[in-house]
Design goal:
The complex is a heterodimer of chains A (137) and B (493). By secondary structure, chain A is an alpha/beta fold. Chain A has one domain (3-136): 3-Layer(aba) Sandwich (Rossmann fold). Chain A has helices spanning 12-27, 40-48, 53-73, 87-95, 112-118, 121-128, and strands at 3-7, 31-38, 78-84, 102-106, 133-136. The relative contact order of chain A is 0.23. By secondary structure, chain B is an alpha/beta fold. Chain B folds into two domains: 2-145 and 196-318, no CATH class; 389-492, Transcription Regulator spoIIAA (2-Layer Sandwich), CATH 3.30.750. Classes of the chains: A alpha/beta (137), B alpha/beta (493). At the A-B interface, helix 2 of A face helix 8, helix 11 and helix 13 of B.
């Protein structure tokens, strides 16, 4: 059974990306790997906005829960994978560690200035991932 | 044996990456240590000594492997007026005393108490810190020509764009190097570090701060020491939470608090200013692959070696490049997400955050800002929780009251005022019940309020029935209520 790779960050874009991933997974009779990278930026914001480890992890789960709920409601098998580091680097590395049917990624999670400075994650995935990449607007 | 294994793992579990990351951090520390010295108003050596000593001591004594501590902007900002009014020796004494306070707080389990600092106050803390760091740079432009602006702009351009080339070398360092080379080769007419202070390859001396050991000295330094102790712990424990999450591991927060104290004491005796954990540097360290204590130790050692070897070069760094780096530190410190959150967050959170920022910016003391924020949050919380609501239902000669909300000192008058006794009498009520199922009696004021209500009803010849008190409330009522005692006394007649 094949697998579809989904880059997820809890934004509206990644929810739409999941909808696409579900379509693809259903058509290819595949399961989905929902991959989330905890970046330094996310760690910093999470630490500022939570009172401790338990609170922090609960909030993170809540952030991603809509994605899990959607996958479950659609009856698609999925696995949640949590990575740490630079999102673009880690996502590309993981997307290429096994042959995926498709790589699906939302068009942007960051704001314009950050994108200008950091470069866009979706752009880097499109360039470097080995599987066909679908960027969902 | 297990402890030994843990220790071995914490030090030598990740040798190669730890050493490389430590060197990267040491390079990134240089401009910051110098800039924070200038903010505090002391010679750059004071911040450089502090940075390598604190980093090395905390690598051994701290509770969060791979976290970087050194001279910081937060601590420098606290001591500005102490340095300008009393000089360096008082700063060193204040740092040592702050360290002692931190050790005591560490043994008292301060980390647990940090949970009670509202998140909005923490956000206000970092935002205020960012604003103050920015503000502190502005004096550098006084009496300068356009060249300093060009250097600042050039530095910022490099800092924001260089990461697109590689993230392996800290961009601020690249900016410093390029701007220094430009300033020297073009012979730019602009101020450099050497004109603001001296950096020399001298070893620090172990000395007692040269202050009189009197009560007067203590009254001068104590307020600063308390501020330093709390500011240092707040930033350190926040940073350790970030490193915990970045690495997916746990840390010993009380050990970290004690370690911060030990590091500040030792730094003070060696002529270094007090410091704490640094969010930016710790992120650089962990992002560069560091996981163990060796990384922090290497950062301190490498910084020491660099001070001893390239101090002459450091003095040639143009001030504008340092200002550029500090503008970036300010930008990176600010929690930009909080601006967006203002639209969606609860109003009380926004108010608390803004109070923290405003108090800090006006007093230039982060600890006062935190205190102001906590007090505001406490008042708003009390106001929110003191909302009490009485339901009144009258049928025939019976009035039934139900209490909704917490009954304590802040809600008592609202509670008492909602009983309409004259209206009850007019309606011909003979029986009154008060249902306490949805409330809790918290203190003697709550009991006093109930007494007041009961006595008022007795005046019109009604004995109200108190129903459904929970166990704790009933116990409190039975021990404190006057109306019960008078009833007993009446019964005895």
């Amino acid at each position: 059974m094949g697998k579809v790779f989904l880059a997820a960050d809890g934004s509206a874009h990644s929810k739409r990306a999941l909808e696409k991933a579900i379509q693809l997974a259903k058509a290819a009779n595949a399961s989905i790997d929902i991959v989330h990278v905890i970046s330094a930026r996310e760690s910093k914001e999470a630490a500022l906005n939570s009172t401790g480890k338990i609170d922090l992890e609960t909030k993170r789960k809540q952030m991603l829960k809509p994605l899990f709920d959607l996958a479950e409601a659609e009856g698609v098998e999925y696995e949640y994978i949590e990575l740490r580091g630079e999102p673009d680097v880690e996502l590309v590395k993981y997307a290429n560690h096994e042959p995926y049917e498709y790589v699906v990624v939302g068009s942007r999670g960051l704001n314009t200035f950050q994108e200008f400075v950091l470069g866009s994650v979706s752009h880097k995935m499109a360039k470097r991932a080995l599987a066909p990449v679908i960027i969902v607007k | 044996m297990e402890r030994l294994n843990t220790l071995k793992h914490e030090w030598f579990g990740n040798v190669r990456a730890d050493i490389l990351a430590g060197i990267v951090v040491a390079l990134a520390l240089i401009p910051e240590a110098i800039a924070f010295s200038l903010i505090a108003g002391v010679n750059p050596m004071v911040g450089l000594y502090a940075s390598f000593i604190i980093a090395m001591v905390i690598s051994i004594a701290g509770g969060r492997p791979a976290m970087i501590s050194a001279a910081t902007g937060a601590m420098a900002l606290v001591v500005v007026s102490l340095v300008s009014d009393h000089g360096l020796q008082y700063l060193l004494a204040a740092g040592i005393l702050a360290g002692i306070i931190q050790i005591v707080l560490g043994y008292l389990g301060i980390a647990r108490l940090m949970k009670f600092i509202p998140r909005a106050v923490m956000v206000g803390f970092v935002n205020a810190l960012a604003i103050l760091i920015f503000q502190a740079q502005l004096s550098n432009f006084e009496g300068e020509n356009w060249i300093i602006w060009a250097i600042v702009a050039g530095s910022l351009a490099i800092i924001f764009l260089f990461p697109r080339v590689t993230k392996a070398i800290p961009a601020p360092l690249v900016a410093i190097i390029i701007m220094t080379i430009l300033a020297i080769t073009l012979g730019l007419d602009t101020k450099n570090i050497g004109e603001l202070g001296t950096i020399s390859a001298t070893l620090p001396d172990f000395l007692f701060p040269d202050v009189p050991f009197t009560l007067e000295t203590l009254t001068i330094i104590l307020p600063y020491s308390v501020s330093l102790a709390f500011v240092g712990l707040i930033e350190s424990l926040l940073t350790s939470q970030i490193v915990d999450d970045m690495t997916g591991t746990d840390s010993n927060k009380n050990r970290e608090s004690r370690g911060q104290g030990i590091a500040n004491i030792i730094a003070g005796f060696f002529g270094g200013m007090p410091g704490c954990a640094m969010i930016g540097q710790s992120v650089i360290n962990v992002s560069s692959g560091a996981r163990g204590r060796l990384s922090t130790f290497t950062a301190g050692l490498a910084l020491f070696i660099m001070i001893m070897t390239i101090s002459d070069v450091l003095m040639l760094i143009p001030v504008g490049a340092l200002v550029g780096v500090m503008f970036f530190v300010s930008y990176a410190t600010f929690d930009w997400g909080s601006l967006k959150a203002m639209r969606t967050a609860q109003k009380s959170d926004t108010v608390v955050m803004l109070v923290t920022v405003i108090v800090t910016v006006f007093t230039h003391d982060l600890s006062l800002g935190v205190l102001g924020g906590i007090l505001t949050a406490a008042v708003l919380f009390a106001a929110k929780i003191s909302k009490i609501d009485l339901g009144r239902h009258v049928s025939a000669d019976r009035a039934e009251y139900t209490v909704n909300g917490q009954l304590f000192f802040a809600s008592t008058s609202e509670f008492v005022n909602q009983f309409d006794i004259s209206e009850d009498v007019e309606a011909g009520v003979k029986q009154v019940t008060i249902d306490f199922a949805n409330t809790h009696l918290w203190d003697d004021s709550a009991i006093g309020a109930i007494d007041k209500v009961v006595f008022k009803y007795r005046e019109v010849g009604i004995e109200p029935e108190l129903l459904n008190l929970n166990k704790d409330s009933e116990k409190l009522l039975n021990t404190l209520a006057l109306h019960l005692k008078q009833q007993d006394a009446n019964a005895g007649h």
